Amino acid sequence: MADPKGFMTTPRQDWPRRPVGERVRDWDEVYVPGALLPIISKQADRCMDCGIPFCHEACPLGNLIPEWNDLVSRDDWRAAADRLHATNNFPEFTGRLCPAPCEAGCVLAINQPAVTIKNVEVAIADRAWELGFAPPQAPDRLSGRTVAVVGSGPTGLAAAQQLTRAGHTVAVYEKDDRLGGLMRYGIPEFKMEKRHLERRIEQMRAEGTKFRTSTAVGRDVGAAELRARYDAVVIATGATAWRELPVPGRELAGVQQAMEYLPLANRVCEGDLESSPMSAAGKHVVIVGGGDTGADCLGTAVREGAASVTQLDIYAQPGAERDEDAEPWPTYPKIYRLSAAHEEAGELGTAPTADADARLFAASTLRFVGDADGHVRSLHLVEVDAGRRPVAGTGRSLPADLVLLALGFSGPDREDGLIGQLGLAMEARGTITRDAGFATSVPGVFAAGDAARGQSLIVWAIAEGRAVAAAVDRYLTGSTRLPAPIGPYDRPMTV
């Protein structure tokens, strides 16, 4: 480490966000441009270069965190970029979108604020692009083998890039008109501007990866035909089958899924629409679901000019500190976190019915009530105890012109015909069955990412993409030199 006392002398300092009143008037990323670089070397100095770096274990990619922290503290950006890209194809994505389980596993976090690993990561990634340290890596020779990757989310893109660099001819099939999966149409612009995505896609094109947009495998192209055309197929369609809320009034107009709402706002940012047909402007909005997708809806509704926004979380409000008995270090704890969207809602007072930051905790939706035209006008809820049982006398009603269901996803969508046409075996929970080598029940067909693992984090998605690429390479050639950071049955650290 450059400064052996850095963790004792330097306090944690995060990338500052722009003032709330400024950032809610646009769709740019929430952070102050250029404010990270002046502080990041000293923040990297806080890394203790632990003998056993638990941040490695907490990150499924196996990122070499102490190594690139040390290099950043010495301003060696080229070497830092090399070490970062050795384990992560898209660090500018994870540095912006990952909730950073590596920081929860930081040894310093036992009794102090963790190293700002996520900020260091994104600083290296952005600096690498600025200084030309992320050139295309086209293969020296081609293998003569072909691979189709179905889905262009982080898993599909990571698998495609690894296999292309290994010399295989790879084509990525994407059902939407643009590449990126949920990173394109599910993640709001204020969390990650799509220029970062476009830059990586252009790098992949230069390396030789082919892309087929507006092509749904199973509908526009037969799944069996695709399998016959390629030597191997990787299914990386993600978990897009959203969970429902079967309560009275669900059929009312204005009760929408989050992933019906968010893509429209992203299309406005892409220039496809002048305004969203589902805009929250002037409406009382209630978001059902306390996770990241719900927070994305919250930040979007605030920017669209909602009259009020409230987010319901069925869980009790977590504490500010880790519960050492239930979630001991280095596991990822459920603690009270204030996202940029919650900070905005709290400062602007978007939810007068909530105590703070627009969230109502321990709240369960009972029913929706509509007007004579069949449009939702209110949501009735009740407080629940730790066992999710209703607490007597706590029922209440919230005005609601737009209700957004952000309840997560159960597995891949079966309506496009891909799964049925291939005859893939499925797990009871709705995900694709695969063996220890990522292979499905159909020879030559592999499954990775949320479609097989279930809904997870972006770091797990990229790790799955890298691992399935190694499995496919071995299947095609008999051996592989590609890294496989995880196995299909690996899971995050828990008690």
Automatic annotation (TrEMBL):
<dbReference type="InterPro" id="IPR028261">
    <property type="entry name" value="DPD_II"/>
</dbReference>
<protein>
    <submittedName>
        <fullName>Glutamate synthase subunit beta</fullName>
    </submittedName>
</protein>
<dbReference type="InterPro" id="IPR017896">
    <property type="entry name" value="4Fe4S_Fe-S-bd"/>
</dbReference>
<dbReference type="InterPro" id="IPR051394">
    <property type="entry name" value="Glutamate_Synthase"/>
</dbReference>
<dbReference type="Pfam" id="PF14691">
    <property type="entry name" value="Fer4_20"/>
</dbReference>
<dbReference type="Pfam" id="PF07992">
    <property type="entry name" value="Pyr_redox_2"/>
</dbReference>
<feature type="domain" description="4Fe-4S ferredoxin-type">
    <location>
        <begin position="38"/>
        <end position="69"/>
    </location>
</feature>
<dbReference type="InterPro" id="IPR036188">
    <property type="entry name" value="FAD/NAD-bd_sf"/>
</dbReference>
<keyword id="KW-0560">Oxidoreductase</keyword>
<dbReference type="InterPro" id="IPR009051">
    <property type="entry name" value="Helical_ferredxn"/>
</dbReference>
<keyword id="KW-0028">Amino-acid biosynthesis</keyword>
<keyword id="KW-0314">Glutamate biosynthesis</keyword>
<comment type="pathway">
    <text>Amino-acid biosynthesis.</text>
</comment>
<dbReference type="InterPro" id="IPR006005">
    <property type="entry name" value="Glut_synth_ssu1"/>
</dbReference>
<dbReference type="InterPro" id="IPR023753">
    <property type="entry name" value="FAD/NAD-binding_dom"/>
</dbReference>
